[in-house]
């Protein structure tokens, strides 16, 4: 079952029934807009295939368990590979034995492979960003008084005025704070008109909600610790589709032209925007810029680990259900596959070169794998989150994400840090939080919600 751009937007986060209640005219307009996006994305995808001299691709499996080509969820068939790239073996075959060798030789090799073959290169001529506080308000979030700033980062488009790019960001900090505070920045979805988040009937632990006292939101959990939070809207500066690759920050730098095969994709572009938000935080006295973390779910879980790997100023990452293209081992035949991400529905996240691994090449030909993306975050802490296969499903491959963290362990240990402590996939709701790589699979669905309390206890070691 091919995913449409429409289903990619919702991505199992909300019920379509909420939108179905909207007027017919709104639904028709939305679906018509999505059809145009799909058509333009397919055309751009075809142009990239032509650049790569690829005539056809292997189709990815379906996320529908009852489909004839359903994705594999049988663990006995999940490991066709015999080995993974060793993050501590140099290209010349020599073993990395010191931190200096890692930083000066091996890490740059891995970055180059990710730049060229997976996520693309950020151009050297990306324009500057000027931040403006659009509004500042004092408000209450539950029982907590906060100061919220609505910010816009305007990208200098003087070299190509026909494309305007603004980064949308909000920052909320405790109103009674006497000094700068740690901040967790979250990549957030912006749903189209007509969508409303369904009212939850369960708490973050899955038990029945007590009407008298709802569970605190993740923002309120942060405020209870005296921390702040920021919301970054990635699609404000780079669209989540192939049709947008000649627009947004990628299109601005390319002056509206089609990407080259090693140009950056949306994940790197979103990460670039997070780095520009950090630039602003370094100027705001309310924020302890040395204690800023990043969080995201699903495609924004992918963006979270990519951001952490490439942005050394971030202190911690909370990676939610990132799946293929994130911390899931690419060589595993379980759930979503390389072929799915290389399709016209998802290729825009990656460099064009990534498509090769669903055509003439295979995932086994990748020079790197997801554990090395986690390794690029070392020695900083990374918390990997997943939901229950019974609720979230198997598409994101919880074990594959666990292994992405586990196989990064040798690099953390080389740098004097602790790994996950085991190579055995743990039972659900078992928190592996003793090391600098952490993992927990909660019993809920496609959300980081149930793991926020565990993450915050873990983060205390680093941001307290």
TrEMBL record:
List the InterPro entries: AB_hydrolase_fold, GCE-like_dom
All copies of the 4-O-methyl-glucuronoyl methylesterase-like domain together span 262-416
The cross-references to Gene3D superfamilies, in alphabetical order and at most eight, read: alpha/beta hydrolase (3.40.50.1820)
Q: Which UniProt keywords apply?
A: Hydrolase, Serine esterase, Signal
A family per Pfam: GCE_fung
Which GO terms of the molecular function aspect are on file?
carboxylic ester hydrolase activity
Q: Mind telling me what this protein is named?
A: Acetylxylan esterase
Lineage from the top down? Bacteria, Pseudomonadati, Bacteroidota, Cytophagia, Cytophagales
């Amino acid at each position: 079952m091919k995913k449409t751009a429409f289903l990619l937007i919702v991505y199992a986060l909300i019920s379509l029934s909420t939108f179905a209640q909207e007027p017919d005219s709104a639904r028709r307009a939305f679906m018509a807009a999505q059809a145009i996006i799909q058509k333009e994305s397919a055309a751009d995808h075809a142009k990239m295939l032509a650049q790569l001299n690829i005539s056809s691709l292997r189709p990815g499996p379906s996320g529908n368990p009852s489909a004839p080509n359903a994705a594999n969820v049988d663990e006995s068939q999940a490991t066709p590979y015999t080995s993974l790239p060793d993050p501590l073996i140099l290209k010349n075959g020599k073993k990395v034995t010191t931190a200096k060798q890692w930083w000066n030789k091996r890490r740059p090799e891995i970055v180059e492979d990710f730049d060229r073959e997976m996520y693309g290169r950020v151009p050297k001529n990306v324009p500057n960003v000027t931040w403006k506080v659009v509004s500042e308000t004092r408000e209450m979030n539950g029982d907590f008084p906060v100061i919220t700033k609505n910010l816009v980062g305007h990208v200098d488009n003087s070299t190509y005025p026909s494309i305007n790019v603004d980064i949308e960001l909000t920052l909320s900090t405790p109103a009674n704070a006497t000094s700068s505070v740690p901040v967790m920045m979250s990549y957030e979805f912006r749903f189209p008109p007509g969508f409303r988040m369904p009212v939850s009937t369960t708490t973050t632990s899955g038990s029945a909600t007590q009407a008298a006292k709802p569970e605190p939101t993740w923002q309120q959990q942060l405020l209870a610790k005296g921390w702040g939070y920021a919301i970054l809207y990635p699609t404000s500066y780079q669209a989540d589709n192939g049709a947008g690759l000649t627009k947004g920050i990628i299109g601005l730098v390319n002056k509206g032209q089609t990407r080259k095969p090693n140009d950056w994709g949306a994940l790197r572009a979103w990460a670039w925007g997070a780095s520009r938000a950090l630039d602003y935080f370094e100027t705001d006295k309310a924020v302890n810029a040395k204690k800023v973390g990043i969080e995201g779910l699903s495609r924004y879980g992918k963006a979270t680990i990519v951001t952490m790997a490439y942005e050394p100023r971030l202190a911690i990452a909370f990676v939610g259900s990132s799946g293929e293209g994130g911390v899931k081992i690419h060589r595993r035949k379980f759930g979503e596959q390389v072929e799915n991400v290389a399709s016209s529905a998802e290729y825009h996240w990656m460099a064009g070169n990534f498509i090769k691994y669903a055509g003439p090449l295979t995932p086994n030909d990748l020079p790197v794998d997801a554990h090395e993306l986690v390794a690029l975050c070392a020695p900083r802490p990374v918390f990997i989150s997943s939901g229950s296969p019974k609720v979230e499903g198997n598409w994101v491959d919880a074990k594959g994400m666990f292994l992405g963290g586990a196989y990064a362990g040798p690099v953390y240990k080389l740098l004097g840090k602790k790994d996950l402590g085991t190579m055995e996939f743990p039972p659900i709701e078992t928190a592996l939080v003793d090391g600098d790589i952490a993992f927990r699979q909660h019993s809920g669905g496609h959300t980081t919600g149930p793991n926020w309390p565990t993450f915050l206890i873990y983060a205390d070691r680093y941001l307290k």
